[in-house]
Amino acid sequence: MNKIKKIYLVLLFIFTGIYAYAGEDGKFSIALYGTQTSHSLLACKTPEFSFHFPQMAGNFKLGVISGQKSRWCNELKSVKLKKSPGKLTYTLEDNLLKGGKIIVRVSKLTDSDGLIMEVEGVNLPDGLDLFWSFGGSYAVELPNKTDSGLKPEYCKDNVFSVEGNAFTVYYGESLNLKVVQAVVPDNSDIRLSDAHKQSTPLAFHQSGKKTDAPALTGTSRLVNGKLYFCFYVQNAKADYNSFMLPELFKKEF
């Protein structure tokens, strides 16, 4: 009986590990619930996220740029995911990183619907940029939230206001306008870009702003240190600036 129990525990451990590292491939099926049960952040097994409040409020994803080479995170050689309640940790490795790695830690927010993210570079070579994009605030509740990538048709009526390293996206009908706030790393190169041109992070970032599918893209120099992102719905308890993000991350994560 003890032998059977040991075999069962080993199999349980193996299958749990497979779920943690290989589950949800290409789908937004990891849920981090917000302050209301109908509000959620969905994630993939690679660092890509969609916001549902409960309508589609945007898509946020990461990539890496090295000179004229760039890759989305789902194209990197190795992406490992560890999960705990309300938190995700991704470890990224690839030939572009030359033996280094990127650790992406994500937590849901306590005082608002949204996320706080820390991106840490470890033993990275010089000349790398972290690429990010945000868009697709559709203002419609999707029938299948697990398929909530950044689609051009979701971007049509999005309006962005950028101020330094923070931005606001306005979406929805004019009489029922919705808003999402964001803070990104200091000294980011933020551009209005064309969501029709997402073949590579570099192509997306250089796509230009003349489009019927506007999205924001940005690059931040990847260093052997930490960068912070925050996406949230502003309220009396949630109104953030970049200098607040390290402490906010410590509190949440």
Break the fold down into its secondary structure elements and pairings.
Layout: H1 2-22, E1 30-33, E2 40-43, E3 48-52, E4 56-66, E5 69-72, E6 78-84, E7 87-93, E8 101-108, E9 114-122, E10 128-135, E11 159-163, E12 166-171, E13 178-183, E14 189-194, H2 201-205, E15 214-221, E16 226-232, H3 245-252
Can you describe what's shown?
There is one protein chain. With 253 residues, this protein is mainly beta. It has one domain: Beta-galactosidase, Chain A, domain 5. The protein is built from three helices and 16 strands. It has helices at residues 2-22, 201-205, 245-252; strands at residues 30-33, 40-43, 48-52, 56-66, 69-72, 78-84, 87-93, 101-108, 114-122, 128-135, 159-163, 166-171, 178-183, 189-194, 214-221, 226-232. Strands 1, 2, 3, 4, 5, 10, 14 and 15 form an eight-stranded antiparallel β-sheet that branches. The chain starts with a helix and ends with a helix.
